[in-house]
Amino acid sequence: MRATGNRLTREQARELLARLDSTVAGLRGRASREAVVKFLNTMVPSYSWVGIYAVDGADLLLDAWSGPSATEHTRIPIGKGVCGFAAKAGKTEIVSDVSKDPRYLQCFLSTKSEIVVPITNQGAVVGEIDIDGDQLDAFSSLDREFLEAVARKASNAWA
Ligand code: SME
Fold first, then answer.
1. Is residue 5 helix, strand or coil?
2. pLDDT tens track for 15-38
3. Distance 115 CA to ligand 1 centre (A)
4. Distance separating alpha carbons of residues 17 and 125, to the nearest angstrom
């Protein structure tokens, strides 16, 4: 079941979470994160580029990604960019129009909106899911809910 249309529905989100469980079953660490980014990028058409960054000292280090091209932002200081902001705050950030957000670090010309969801372990941010959308306002509160559930699964398989 691949999600269709511009926005995720609640029904699709529920089915995707169940499908993700079987996709990552038995995987841990980086192998699990590789499977998660590929799954999200493949199954949800509005998720144009999907990456997982891991906290590495004072930086975020790109650990796994799936999308049409590589990003030059493979290391982002915590506090910089939308990614660094979300990591520092420990809270999900949704940017509906990246051209209007001064924090935004550009990776792809096609990106119009972005969501960043921290992955936490015992209250500490260990990484984050970063998704770029090629449409304005591609991410709703349902995407937030869905991706926060995905982040909890990623946290459980982190090490
Ligand atoms: N746009 C992000 C940088 C990472 S790329 O989107 C892959 C930011 O503003 O932090």
1. coil
2. 999 999 999 999 999 999 999 999
3. 9
4. 22
